[in-house]
Amino acid sequence: MNCPFCNSTKFKVTNKRDSHEGIRRRRECLKCKKRFTTHERLAEPNIYVIKKDGSREKFDPSKLKRGLDKAFEKRPVPKDKIERIVFEIEEQIRKKKTNEIKSKIIGEMMILKIKKLDKVAYVRFASVYRDFQDIKDFKEELRGL
Fold first, then answer.
1. Cβ–Cβ < 8 Å for 58, 44
2. pTM greater than 0.90 (yes/no)
């Protein structure tokens, strides 16, 4: 590991804490004296997502985050709540004790969590996820809210 500021490999750990993401370590570079944070996670077995067309791809939590960021864009929802949703969904998937999961199941998990947090973000996400074709689809979804 290298210091992100000066690329030195000499640093000390000033603080270590468990977090919902794994282990969080606060480090101080011995060369430039700047501080930075690292996160360590336990290596988990690979999970594959089965897409609508039957293809398989490796599960990537950053894709969940990107989708949520788009849905919550310009909404008054703190980033930590979005990150929490990603963590909770990943945790739910891993608890299933399977190495494959359908993308539809992940989408439904996401849509339920978004709906609880912000109705506008929910409609944004649903419009893409459920492939709304016209204004009638939006109206039907809004009636359901």
1. no
2. no
Q: b or e along 7-24 (b: 16 or more beta carbons within 10 Å of the residue's beta carbon)?
A: eeeebeeeeeeeeeeeee
Q: What is the pLDDT of residues 62-121, one digit of tens each?
A: 999 998 998 998 888 888 899 899 999 988 998 887 889 999 899 889 988 998 988 888
* pLDDT, tens only, 12-50: 999 998 876 678 999 999 999 999 999 887 767 789 999
Q: What is the separation, in whole angstroms, between the first and last Cα of the chain?
A: 49
Amino acid (1-letter code) at residue 31: K
Distances (CA, A) of 30 to 1, 5, 86: 13, 12, 34
Lookup: tokens for 121: 């973000």
